[in-house]
Hints:
Distance between the termini: 26 Å
Low-confidence stretches: 1-38, 255-269, 462-477
Mean pLDDT: 77
Number of strands: 0
Helix content: over 70%
CATH class: Mainly Alpha
Number of domains: 1
CATH superfamily: MFS general substrate transporter like domains
Structural class: mainly alpha
Shape: globular
Radius of gyration: 22 Å
Oligomer: single chain
Order of helices and strands: HHHHHHHHHHHHHHHHHHH
CATH architecture: Up-down Bundle
Strand content: under 5%
Amino acid sequence: MKFGSADAIEPEKYAEPMIQVVRSIELSESAPSTFIAPVKIPKNAIRTSLRASTIDGVFATIFSNITAGVLLTNFLIDLGATPTEIGVLASVPMLANLVQPIGAHLSEKTTSRHLFCGWIYGVSRSMWLILAVVLFLLDRNPVNQHTLVIITLSVASFSGVLGAFGSAPWLSWMAALVPSRLRGRYFGFRNSAANLTNLISIPLMGWAISHWLGGAIQGYGLMLILGIAAGLISLTCQNFITDINPQEQRSSLSLTPHPSSPHPPIPSSSLWQHSNFLMFLLYFTLWMFAVNLSAPFFNLYLLDDLKLDISLVTLYNSLSPAANLLMLVLWGKLADRFGNRAILLSVGVGVAITPMLWLITGMNPVSVWLWLPLLHLLGGGTWAAIDLCSTNLQIGIVPTQKQSTYFGIVAATGGVSSAVGTLAGGFLVQYWDYSGLLGLFFLSTILRLVALLPLVFVSEKPCASGWSSWLRSPRPC
């Protein structure tokens, strides 16, 4: 998940909407009770933190676009990578989530979320300089293309593992700063800013790589340097986010159960007694396997099977964040109104059948100019709800005490299932004789529908418990 942020984006563009979100806190006399942790944070500091977090997300998105997704997939295809190797690359950050509980445990022993996340992400993003240097020296010292594939896989592996140490602490940091009743609107707005960046940057970088005079491989190297710079700039934005001391937060929670917590604090040893959390974990595990069985291979289908140009594929990929941008704020408001589980169930059916719609595509004008763009728009609009509501539901149902530990467990379990799904997909594509990628898309649809069943039994209402609670309205009390 997601959950895991163009210098053309000016901070002032997002300042006023962000101020409006924060000012809505001031209108309520009970505003202090809306925070995850009962730590006193001045309103001005909250306002600055939310604004800085949004700008951080913009620059981190540029880094992610270059070191993952369609641009990296096209780079590997140019190097002659096999579907299995592409599947391995896609599974690396998922398997790296295994270390998230370790990162969560280590972060709880520190006194600063900011310093912990800064060091983790600073080192992990800087590791991509190794690949950038190799590509820069390529003209003087030619390297076998398969060697470049191995170097790319190695850099992605080490960077992904290091970055995973910071995911759960970062989510805990944000959960402590964002008011619970405004999470849908704020994260919807933050994700909208990131998707606007996707909309602008992906097609521009794809066009630059496709038309670079030195070739696509050299062009990707140039974009990689740009991405590393953007990733480091995003970390400087975190200097303006109010720091949280895990020791003080845990001390406050141990003294007073917080009224805004959807569940009373419980010790981590009672994890297996928390049936609501375990049911969500089952849903998330099955869902991530079913999704990632096919998700990494849509771009492979466009670039390898249909032989489309990278500039056209990046244009398709920019349509998804465009739809995401238009729908996120709406999904955020609907989630705050009706509950995250209701959105996940209703939209999840649409996301589940989307891979089956790819079965009617082909190398013809109708598919290239109508059907494929519509599929990317549909995917972007629906995944906006899935990403947003999954994160919000997870924040809402986990116990407040040792929150980052629970986030780490979800990420680790989901990461393993995602990696297994991706590896299984790559193996099936390369060695399965039944319809290749299209057969894989059909199988993914069936498994996605099955994965939605455990979500029916997840209760989002803090006043609802037991297996019969799924019959009640999922809107929070």
